[in-house]
Amino acid sequence: MIDPFFHVHCLQEVDSTNERAKELARQGAPEGTVIVAATQWAGRGRRGRSWSSPHGGLYFSLILRPPISPDLAPQLVLVTAACLYRALHRRGLPVSIKWPNDLVAGGKKLGGILVEAGSASQSLSFLVVGVGVNINGPPPIEGGTSIEALAGSPQQKEEILADILGEMKRTYFAYLQEGIGPVLAEYRRGCTTLGREVILVGPKGGAPAKAVDIGERGELFVEDLDGRRRSVFADEVSLRCG
Amino acid sequence: MNLDEIKELIQALSDSNLAELELETDKVRLYLKKAVVSTAQEGQRPEETFPRLPVTGQVLPAEPSEVQEETVIIAAPMVGVFYRAPAPDAPPYVEVGDRIAEGQPLCIIEAMKMMNEIEADVAGIIKEILVENEQPVEYGQPLFVVEKLG
After folding, report:
1. Which of A61, A90, A189, B100 could disulfide-link to A21, CB 3.0 to 4.6 Å?
2. Chain A: residue whose CA lies nearest to B114
């Protein structure tokens, strides 16, 4: 059962659940509005990259209106990742978070998060939290995996959606009350990137480093070969890790 | 007074505990006021440490002309990467000289793979775009100079 906090709109086919959700948010749709689609014909990842969305996957976008300033909004990526981790881990699935916004299992991609916000220059007006998870059927991308492949049999998408949304509601309201601390602890537990050797790909080529911690803004702390510690933001460098 | 000096003042105000700043010289009257982000409701915020408040800047002409011209600087509300278009192959949201409506998207700032579409606070004309596409921006950094209309 989906928590009554959420108003769920189920669609068969849509260009992109994030686009529909942003449109509704601009028209004043309340917090808790969810767009779910069986398939997306123009599913999107970051910066217009396509997100393959065949039948069998779970694709939804959730509208939130947190009373926070725009510079804190990236914390909702952490909130969402921690929720996905917890909801799927509880089903006994060996999932983990690949920093900052991917869900993986055994080094294979299982899902991802795309958070988009609308704000005036000073205040946040809405957030759209987009989630895509491969549930049933063959993984849509090479090197991907699915919940079906991990569990050994097809799974109920609606149940998984209800679990994830239940987790989102609990975690989101706890976050508004208590701050990012508990979310960050959960994120760290679920994050496979921590403790790994990573390659930071910058304008001057790749540099090896070790991922050691996640900061309150979601930044990754790394130590280079000389033991120097610095923070890395997802958009400054690309990161490769298994 | 040039734009760089105004930007410096905005930064100084942003870094300070002052709520507003007024400056008058022979040629210009400048009034800067921090955006109204109420600190009275701090308890509702998820974080105790709330960083410097953003600013809006308004440069008023010293002698009111027939057409009341007011320039507004739209600043970055967060640290991130500045994008002028919704996707790499899409046209920019706005160009210099464009007339914009209040609420119209002007750019995207990306942080931690979260895309934040920044909308105009005011209706007006884009006079200047101060940051190149795909460049990192700081908190409070001026992005657009807009001549306010209406």
Report:
1. A61
2. A115
Q: Quick one: fold of A197-241?
A: SH3 type barrels. (2.30.30)
What are the backbone dihedrals phi and psi of residue A241, each rounded to the nearest 5 degrees, phi first? Answer: -160, 160
Q: For residue B117, give the nearest of A76, A116, A233 by CB distance.
A: A116
CATH of A7-190, one of 3.20.20.190, 3.30.930.10, 3.40.50.360, 3.90.640.10: 3.30.930.10
Residue A45 pLDDT greater than 90, yes or no: no
Q: State pLDDT tens for residues A162-171.
A: 999 999 999 9
Q: Searching chain B, which residue's CA lies closest to the CA of residue A126?
A: B116
Search chain B and give the residue with CA nearest A122: B77
**B121 touches A at CB < 8 Å:** yes
pTM: 0.80
The answer to whether residues B138 and B76 touch, using CB atoms and an 8 Å cutoff, is: yes
Distance CA A208, CA A226 (A): 11
Q: Phi/psi at A45 (nearest 5 deg)?
A: -105, -155
pLDDT at residue B124 tops 80: yes
Contact B74 A217 (CB under 8 A): no
| Share of chain A residues as helix, strand and coil, in percent rounded to the nearest 5 | 30, 35, 35
DSSP helix/strand/coil, B76: coil
Kindly determine whether residue B112 and residue A68, on different chains, have CB atoms separated by under 8 Å.
no
Q: Do A115 and B115 count as a contact with CB atoms less than 8 A apart? A: yes
Q: Rounded CA gap, A177 and B44, in Å?
A: 7
**pLDDT over 80 (residue B16):** no
More reliable by pLDDT, B57 or B95: B95
pLDDT tens digits for range A214-238 = 999 898 999 988 899 988 876 555 6
Q: How far is A113 from chain B (nearest CA, A)?
A: 9
Which DSSP helix (H) or strand (E) runs through B83? Answer: strand B80-83
Task: Provide ipTM, 2 decimals.
Answer: 0.86
For residues A56-64, average pLDDT: 96
